[in-house]
Structures are given as C-alpha cells and as structure tokens.
C-alpha cells in the first residue's frame, strides 16, 4: 500500500510539473517570443488602412471590379461573406456555408470541372477582350487547395494590365510597377515561383486612384 501511495505521489507530481511546463510556461514563452520578434506575423499579418484592418497578407479576397487584379477562383468565395449573406450550393439552394476552406475537388473526368472552367474563361475573356483564350495562365482558372490563396503568378498579373489601366485611369507603366513592387521572389531563390500578392497590389491601386481624385 505504501508503494502505491509513493507511485501515486510521483504520478501526481509529474502531471503537475508537465502541466506547468507544457500548459503554462511553454505557451507563454512562445507567445512572448513571437510577439517580440515576429509581431506582424504572429498577429495574422494584417493589413490596415487608417487604423482599420482590411485583410491579411496570407488570405486572399474576392475582387470583381475591372480596376483591380482578379485572384484565383475559390470554391468557398474566400469567405468574404457574413451570416447575412447566402451562397448557392450544388442544387441551387441559397445557404450560408460558414467560415471554411477547401477546393472544388472535381476529378479530371467530372463534367462539372469543364463546365466551371468554361464559365470562368468566358467571364475573363469578356472583361479582357484583348486577351486570347490560349494565353490565359492556368492559375487564374484553377483553385488552390485551401481556396484562400492570396497570390497569382506574375504572368496572371501581367495579362490583366490593359483592363486595369483602362478602368482605373492609371497608366500601364504604373500598373506594371505595382506588379513589380508586390512580387514575392522564390523562397531562398530556388523554391516555388515568383508570385504577386493580389490584396497588396490592389491596395496600392486603390491608394493611387484616391490620390488622383484628390
């Protein structure tokens, strides 16, 4: 019986010790380190205008105005809606789908994939009449695994320059400079591809348009 109490005491002490170390000290230490060294990233990499958060560098948003860059298609509409908004499900019923992430998950043999891509191509060509179908970059017609990708390829950004310049009142040179300023290079120079952050580029466009109107 005495040995049982000794073992029980050890177990309780170990449990309390691990709780303090792993449940209190470690989380507080990691949080303090992150806030001290990587404050912006630790708080969601939020972007602010006039002190108000308008998005995150890491999460895409839905843009449809001709004066802004369009991002990749999203099965979950980038979750830019609220509970008051509704989105159609596969049966055409309007339902709030909640905050989520994910892709269309259509197999290559699924006719719905071709139907969805054809609809998006038609929409893009109508808004960009100078662009040829075969020149549309693949990433503009495909969704990311999460449906929240904030980036497009440099080619996908460049192909939208004429439309944006015409609609925004900015010159093509200005739009091309915005692309250059918001292009993120390959990780360590070798991993991935150069890509453009759509939200950050569009915020720059918005600021320039506001300045022209003042």
Write a structural description.
The strands form three sheets. A three-stranded antiparallel sheet has the order 5-7-6. The longest helix is centred in the N-terminal third of the chain and has 36 residues, at 2-37. It is elongated and about 85 Å long. Helix 6 packs across helix 7. It is built from eight helices and seven strands. With 214 residues, the protein is mostly helical.
Nearest-integer average pLDDT: 86
Major sheet size, sense and barrel closure = 3 strands, antiparallel
Number of strands: 7
Shape: elongated
| Sheet with most strands: strand arrangement | 5-7-6
Task: Identify the quaternary structure here.
Answer: single chain
Q: Helical content, roughly?
A: 40-55%
Question: How are the SSEs ordered, and which strands pair?
Answer:
Layout: H1 2-37, H2 39-42, E1 46-49, E2 52-56, E3 87-88, E4 94-95, H3 111-127, H4 138-141, E5 151-153, H5 154-158, H6 161-168, H7 172-181, E6 183-184, E7 195-197, H8 198-213
Antiparallel strand pairs: 1-2, 3-4, 5-7, 6-7
Helix pairs in contact: 6-7
Brief write-up:
The chain is mainly alpha-helical and 214 residues long. Helix content is 47%, strand content 10%.
Task: Please supply descriptive tags for the structure shown above.
mainly alpha, 8 helices, two-stranded antiparallel ribbon, three-stranded antiparallel β-sheet, 7 strands, 214 residues, 10% strand
């Amino acid at each position: 019986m005495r040995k049982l109490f000794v073992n029980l005491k050890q177990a309780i002490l170990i449990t309390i010790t691990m709780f303090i170390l792993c449940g209190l000290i470690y989380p507080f230490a990691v949080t303090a380190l992150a806030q001290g060294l990587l404050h912006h990233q630790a708080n969601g990499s939020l972007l602010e205008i006039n002190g108000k958060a308008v998005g995150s560098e890491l999460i895409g948003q839905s843009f449809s105005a001709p004066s802004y860059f369009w991002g990749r298609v999203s099965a979950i509409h980038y979750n830019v809606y609220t509970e008051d908004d509704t989105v159609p499900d596969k049966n055409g019923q309007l339902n709030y789908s909640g905050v989520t992430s994910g892709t269309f998950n259509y197999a290559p043999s699924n006719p719905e994939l071709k139907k969805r891509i054809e609809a998006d191509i038609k929409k893009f060509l109508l808004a960009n009449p100078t662009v040829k179908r075969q020149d549309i970059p693949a990433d503009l017609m495909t969704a990311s695994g999460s449906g929240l990708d904030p980036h497009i390829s440099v080619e996908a950004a460049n192909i939208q320059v004429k439309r944006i310049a015409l609609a925004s009142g900015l010159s093509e040179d200005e739009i091309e400079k915005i692309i250059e300023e918001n292009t993120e290079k390959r990780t360590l120079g070798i991993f991935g591809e150069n890509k453009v952050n759509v939200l950050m580029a569009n915020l720059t466009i918005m600021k320039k348009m506001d300045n022209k109107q003042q």
